[in-house]
Amino acid sequence: MTLKFALSLSAGALALGLATAQAQEPLKIGVVSVLTGPAAALGQQVRDGFQLAVDQNGGKLGGVPVQITVIDDELKPDVAVGKVRSYVEGGKVDFVVGPVFSNILGAIAKPVLDSGAILISPNAGPSTMAGKACHQNFFVTSYQNDQVHEVLGKYAQDQNYKKAYIIAPNYQAGKDSLAGFKRYFKGEILDEVYVPLTSLDFAAELAKIASAKPDVVFAFLPGGLGVNFVKQWSQAGLTGKVPFLSAFTVDESTLPAQQDAAVGMFGGMTWAPNMDNPQTKKFVAAYEAAYKIVPGSYAQQSYDAAQLIDSAVKAAGGTGDKDKLRAAIKKADFTSLRGKFKFNTNGYPIQDFYLVKVAKRADGKFQTEIAQKVFEDYADPHAKDCALK
Amino acid sequence: MNTGLLIVQILNGLQFGILLFLVAAGLTLVFGVMDFINLAHGVQYMLGAYLAVTFVALTGSFVLGLVLALAAALVFGLALEFLVFRHLYERDHLDQVLATFGLILLLNQGVKIVWGAAPLSVPLPEFLTGNVALMDGILYPTYRFALIGSGLAVGALLWFIVEKTRTGMLLRAGASNAPMVSALGVDIRKLFMIVFAFGTMLAGFAGAMAAPILSVEPGMGDTVLILAFVVIVIGGIGSIRGAFVAALIVGLVDTLGRSFMNDLLRLFMSAPSARATGAALSSMLIYLLMAVVLFVRPEGLLPARGRT
After folding, report:
1. Residues A279-307: what's their mean pLDDT?
2. B308 domain residue, yes or no
3. Which residues of B touch A201 (CB under 8 A)?
4. Phi first, then psi: what are they for B42, rounded to 5°?
5. A27-143+274-350 matches A146-269 in fold
6. Which of A133, A218, A223, A262 could be stapled to A358 by a disulfide with Cβ–Cβ 3.0 to 4.6 Å?
7. How many domains does chain B have?
């Protein structure tokens, strides 16, 4: 080998090395979601909503190519914490988006935040992390959990219903739910029922409702529980007789199974697929084309999380300066599918809440639709316990 | 407490019990006759429901869809027997539990790939929609009456087969002492295959019948499997009669417990604590019942004869 040849070779290698260094380092984003078990229908929406936003941006957020790692938390805190810890410790991670459920969030928050990554929850919004345990690198693009239940309590109170029958699963979120409803509803509670999370058949509860004759029923029965309850509700002949208010019981993830039985039932949410703005129309059409189902709030909040990252990375010129990036996120300078969207001091949104009603569309599919606004610019009450300014 | 509500709740309990019986009957046969622990019985129930979803949508008729779903469940059961279970009969219980648990994971994931993760449903058959008025405005869904009726019919059929036919005689003999039956020249392999296929079909039938009232989703068989084990332990392993009686008892205890426990406790407790205790106690009730039965009659209420 001649000296000249060796020199040109090393010069070439040097040039090559420089070229790679100049190419942008991709944004590393972990999407933590539940993709196995009965709750996978929700998790898939979170994953797909995020992916859709990235695809529409040509695989980039804030002008930087993204490298997404999807992590299945299996809805098991121990599994989630193990997988997430090894992911964030495996290299510089910029953002972690997830999860769906609050108990998983409780498990993964510490390892993610300790690693210096920014954690954005597209769904879970526990009261603890809105108050004392708030964190400067933690943001929520959904809502604080209590608020959704409060929407129905406020509505029931506004309607001047006197007697309510309320039902939820026998676990912490169920108790929080009924407490949230009662915070605004001041009428008489005929019965407050807690059913096991594994309930299949609600015939016994439905018979009691029919015989107690309440003015209104409030239910928090997520996933399969809600499918069973709603189908059996209509089979028991209660449709149209008692107003049915609910939280996370009739939404786009359960409607394909509930179908006609759910039409006319009410829920509470910050958005619905028929929201009257151009960005929602575009989002719903694109989502349905890509994934063949009507997107629910889970997909919408995850899509907004991607838009938030896009806006913040663009404004901060990358993720190098964390303070700059944080400030850019707090501005929430993106066009939310909800229209209005801004962050409170605790990283939770201040936004409008609506009563939504289940309807059958002209094409035979089912979706929730905005019925009326219940809260305007509603901030959660826990923000006052948060030390962040 | 009024009588109308009590009657409705007793019907609800019976109906829940009948559903459990359909699942437990197959399980207790396979367990009793073949000494085979089939944890995959629950996913076979789930599969029955999913097949019903597909075939009812395809044919547009509930009855036709049900028949096709049963046939498909039977074929699937035979295929499983041939591919998996046949190789496990000689193995010990731990191997059986491991292999059939593996099947649970495989099939739960499998239905998600084929049908998707979101819950599905089967519409009520036209002629069974609506309600029957029992008394002063107390309604009971017609479909649930149909469910009770079909469950009783299956129970009667099983009783006939087990008590009055030659196959049934071999079944009872097999449940008491399988090696002896084999030694007497009966093709025990064939008997096992029939039992297994029939058990699978019963589970599939239960799933298909439950599909219009319950949500059809991955993992739906797991809860039912646990309840079915409670039923066969209470009833006595291998005993169809035991499974029937125990299923009705479990259905009634669970339903009545959920309906009236709160009111009962409220007689001597404050409302909030009655609510908390009631919710906890009523969901434990059937397991307490099982514990008591195991303590008093470890072999179950109506054990298969000659079984030790």
Report:
1. 96
2. no
3. 12, 15-16, 19, 213-214, 255
4. -65, -40
5. yes
6. A262
7. 1
Tokens of B251: 């259905």
Contact B292, B229 (CB under 8 A): no
Q: Which residues pair with A367 in a beta bridge?
A: A359
Does A210 contact B138 at a Cβ distance shorter than 8 Å?
Answer: yes
Strands A95-97 and A64-72: unpaired
Q: What is the DSSP letter of A243?
A: -
What is the token pair recorded at A263?
């039409």
Distance CA B92, CA B100 (A): 13
List helix spans (H) across A93-223.
102-114, 145-158, 172-184, 203-212
**At A193, phi and psi to the nearest 5?**
-110, 130
Å between B39 CA and nearest CA of chain A: 18
Rounded to an integer, the average pLDDT of A135-151 is: 95
| CATH for the A27-143+274-350 domain, from 2.40.160.210, 1.20.1270.50, 3.40.50.2300, 3.30.240.20 | 3.40.50.2300
- Report the CATH fold assignment for A146-269: Rossmann fold (3.40.50)
> B6, exposed or middle or buried, with CB in 10 Å at 0-12, 13-18, 19+?
middle
Whether residue A257 lies within 8 A of chain B, CB to CB, comes out as yes
CA distance B123 to B182: 46
Whether A198 has its CB under 8 Å from any CB of chain B: the answer is yes
Residue-range domain boundaries for chain A:
27-143+274-350, 146-269
Residue B42 counted as domain residue: yes
Domain annotation covers residue B139: yes
> By the 8 A CB rule, do A282 and A237 touch?
no
Instruction: Note down the domain range covering B107.
Output: 10-217
Token output for A338? 């909800």
B109, two tokens? 């994931």
Which residues of chain B have a CB within 8 Å of the CB of A207? 5, 8-9, 12, 259
In tens, the pLDDT along A317-346 reads 989 899 999 999 999 999 999 999 999 999
Neighbouring C-alpha atoms within 13 Å toward the C-beta of A35: 14
Asked if A200's CB is within 8 angstroms of B214's CB, the reply is yes
Q: Where are the beta strands (DSSP E) in A51-157?
A: 60-61, 64-72, 95-97, 118-121, 138-140
Determine the Cα–Cα distance for residues A29 and B53; give it in Å rounded to an integer: 38
| pLDDT, tens digit (0-9, with 9 covering 90-100), for B146-198 | 999 999 999 999 889 888 999 888 888 877 777 888 888 888 888 888 888 88
Distance from the Cα of residue A230 to its chain's centroid: 22
Rounded mean pLDDT of chain A?
91
Using CB atoms within 10 Å of the CB of residue B107, give its burial: 0 to 12 exposed, 13 to 18 middle, 19+ buried. Answer: buried
* A319, B80, B103, B186, B196 from B85: Cα distances, Å: 56, 6, 11, 20, 9
Report residue B33 as tokens. Answer: 């006759």
Is B74 part of a structural domain of the chain?
yes
